[in-house]
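Entry:
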Amino acid sequence: MGDLKVSYIIPPGSDQRYAMILENDFIAINTALKQLDGAKLDHDNQSIMEALKIRDAIVKGEEETFPEDVVVALVEGNNPVRVFRKWRGMTAVTLSQAAGISQPYLSEIENGSKDGSLSVMKRIATILNVTLDDLAG
């Protein structure tokens, strides 16, 4: 594996850092971590095992991952509805029509001047194939 090449994303106003590594390094780490499966677990190893479960869910298609540009846009504080709408290749008109709301109302949600009602946000989440938590920002 050699030296890890790590890039960090630090959300504005946060003291947390998110690390991004090369895919080959990720695969090597996962291979090494599989050897821990079934071992007596301390706190760190429990976290590793949780990470393995999440990785397995991603591999099985049970969890969706997002491209780097989507993650960066969200971390930078861009509106999640707008970020996911653009990622899904939808126009504001198309999304507003599919959600049964006016385009100006969607625009107000996307620019943060209005909160969407729970029922509207559920419809938007369904259309964008994301969870309500994903849209909570």
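The beta strands are 6-9, 18-21.
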